[in-house]
C-alpha cells in the first residue's frame, strides 16, 4: 500500500537523495520518492519495519513518522541565538593572544560546529564518509592542526550562517505546504430536519443538505439549494475576485463563503471533491523529479569523493616535486579546496527552484503534477485545443427550432428533449432546458453513440437525435441542404422519418483569442484545434481566436489519429501539448507529450490522466504555465552555471595559493546563499 511519511530531522538534501537511492534498491520496496523540500517520503511497501531500519542505518538521527504527526524540525530562533553567541565569542577572541585566544576560538568553533562534527563522526561510524559534514570537519580540523585558529572557527561559523539561511528557506517552503494541507475543511453542518449537526466532511453522504455560514469554508462539492452569497475561489482557481452564487449554482469544497448563508445539496463524496483532488496532486507533485534534479543528485555522489581525492593529491604531491614546498603550506591549500568544493549550493537550490515553480503555478490555479513536467513544458512548440468547454464556454442554448414533415416546433423540441433527458452532454442539456419542463422521465431505451448522437425509445417511438453523420450512418432520407447549415445543428428522426433540426449556439470564452496570442508570444509555433463539431461551427470559432489549423467532425478515436499526425510533423526536439476537458478528450490527453485538463468543469477521467490541471478553466493559463516553466528552467541553469563558475575559479586560486580560507568560505557560503535566494525568485 502506498503511504506518505514525514522524515523528522531530515536537514540534508544529499541525505534525502541517498535514502531514496538505497530504498529503491530494496526488493521489498515497490516505489519510493523522498522529497527534501517537504521532508516527506511517499512509499509503497508491505515491510515498513525493514525500511525504517535501513533509514536508521543511513541516517541514524532521522525519525519516520505518520505524515500527520510530522513537523518542521528547524527552530529559527534557537539556531539564530547559537550563531550570534558563537559570532560574539569569535569577535572576542581577537582581543587576546596565545593559548587563551586559541581556547576562545575553539569555544566559538564548538558552539557553532558541534552538530556538523557530531554528524560527520556518526556518519563515518555507519560507513558514510563523503558528505558536506565530512568536508567541513576535515577542513576545519586541519586548520586547527596548522594553528590557523581564527580561520578554523570563522570557516565553521560562516558555514553555519549559510546553512541557517538555506534551512530558513526550506522551512518556509515546508510551512507553505503545511498551510495548504491545513486548508481542507474539517467540519460540515449537516441539516437534519430543523437541526444542524456538526460532522466530519468525510462522513457526509451524497444527497445530504449542508449549511455553510459566512466566513466558513465550503466542505464538499454540491449545488446551492437556497441562499445567495459571494464565494472566494482563490484556493482552487488562484483568482482573487469573489464569485456570486445563487440557487442552482455549483460550488466546490475549499471555496470560502463570504456573505450570506448557503444551503448546499452534496453531489460528491469528500474523497472525490475538488479540494481533495488538489491536495492529492500537490502532495505528490514532487515525486516525479526533473532530469536536472536527478543529474545533480548523481553528480554530488561522485563529486565529493573526487574532491577529497584531489585535496589529498594537492596536500601530498607538491612537497615531493616542487623545490621549497612545505607540507603545511600545501595542506592549507588542500583545506581551501575542501571548503570551496561543498556541493550544497547545487544540491539544495535546484530542488527548491522546481519546488518554487510548482508552488508559484499552484497559487495561480495551475497544478503541475511533477517537476519533470516543468522541463517538458519548456519544449512545447505546438499546442492543440479541444473546442467545446476549452476555447468556448460550453454553455449551449437553443437558437432556433426548424421542424419539417408537418411537425410543430414544440413537438420537435419535445421529442429531442425526452430522448436527450438521460445525457449529460452540454448540447443535450441545452435542449432539455429549452423545453422547459423538469424531471422528464428517462426514455424506455437509451444508447449514446460517441461522435454521432443518441438513439432512444420514447413512448414506444424510436427516436434518433444527433449530427449529420448520424443521418448518413442510419441512412435517413433528408434534404442535402440540411447538411451544410453553419453552426452546431442537432437533427431529429422519428420512426425513421426526418422531423427537422435544432440550431444550437456556443460562445467563445473572453480570453481565448488573448490566450492564443500569449502562446505565440511565449514561443509556441503552432496552435491547432481538434473538435467533433461541424466544419462551419469550428471555422467560425477558429477565425475569432486565430487558430493556425483545425480538424473537424472528429470521433474520439479520430482525434487521437489527428494528434498523432501533428506529433509526426513536429520538430525533432519540439513537443506537443493537448488541452481538453471532456471524457472524450482523455485518450488524446494521454497521447500528447503534455496533457492539460480543465479542472473545475472537466471530467475526472481527463483530470486524472493529465500532466497539468487548470483549475479556473481559462485557456490563458496554458501560456502562464509555459512561462513559469521557462522562468524555473532559467533560474536552475543560472544556479548551475554560477555555482560551477565560482567554485572553479576559487579551486584554481586556492591551489595556486592566491585565495585563503576566508575567501574560500565566503565564496562557498555566498554561492549557496545567492543560489537559494535566486531559487526563491521562482516562488
Helices and strands in order:
Layout: E1 2-8, H1 13-24, E2 29-35, E3 40-45, H2 48-58, E4 63-66, H3 76-93, H4 98-125, H5 132-145, H6 149-181, E5 188-192, E6 195-199, E7 209-212, E8 222-226, E9 229-232, H7 234-237, E10 243-245, E11 250-251, E12 256-257, E13 262-266, H8 274-284, H9 291-316, H10 318-321, H11 327-340, H12 344-363, E14 366-368, H13 371-377, E15 380-386, E16 397-403, H14 409-420, H15 426-435, E17 445-449, E18 453-458, E19 461-466, H16 468-473, E20 488-494, E21 497-505, H17 512-521, E22 526-530, H18 535-545, E23 549-551, H19 556-568, E24 575-580, H20 586-591, E25 594-598, H21 604-609, E26 612-614, H22 620-656, H23 661-682
Parallel strand pairs: 15-22, 15-24, 22-23, 24-25, 25-26
Antiparallel strand pairs: 1-3, 1-4, 2-3, 5-6, 5-7, 7-13, 8-11, 8-13, 9-10, 9-12, 14-26, 16-21, 17-18, 18-19, 19-20, 20-21
The count of strands amounts to: 26
Tally of individual helices: 23
Strand content: 15-25%
CATH superfamily of the domain at 356-392 and 509-630: HAD superfamily/HAD-like
Can you tell me the CATH class of the domain at 356-392 and 509-630?
Alpha Beta
Q: Mind describing the biggest β-sheet?
A: 7 strands, mixed
Determine the N-to-C terminus distance.
33 Å
Structure report:
The structure is a single chain. With 683 residues, the protein is α+β, with helices and mostly antiparallel strands. Among the domains are: 2-66, Alpha-Beta Plaits (2-Layer Sandwich), CATH 3.30.70; 188-283, Calcium-transporting ATPase, cytoplasmic transduction domain A (Distorted Sandwich); 356-392 and 509-630, HAD superfamily/HAD-like (Rossmann fold, 3-Layer(aba) Sandwich), CATH 3.40.50.1000; 397-505, Calcium-transporting ATPase, cytoplasmic domain N (3-Layer(aba) Sandwich), CATH 3.40.1110. It contains 23 helices and 26 strands. The strands form 5 sheets. The chain has a 7-stranded mixed sheet with strand order 14-26-25-24-15-22-23, sandwiched between helices. Strand 20 (488-494) and strand 21 form a beta hairpin. Helix 9 (291-316) runs antiparallel to helix 11. The longest helix is centred in the C-terminal third of the chain and has 37 residues, at 620-656. The model has no long low-confidence stretch (mean pLDDT 81).
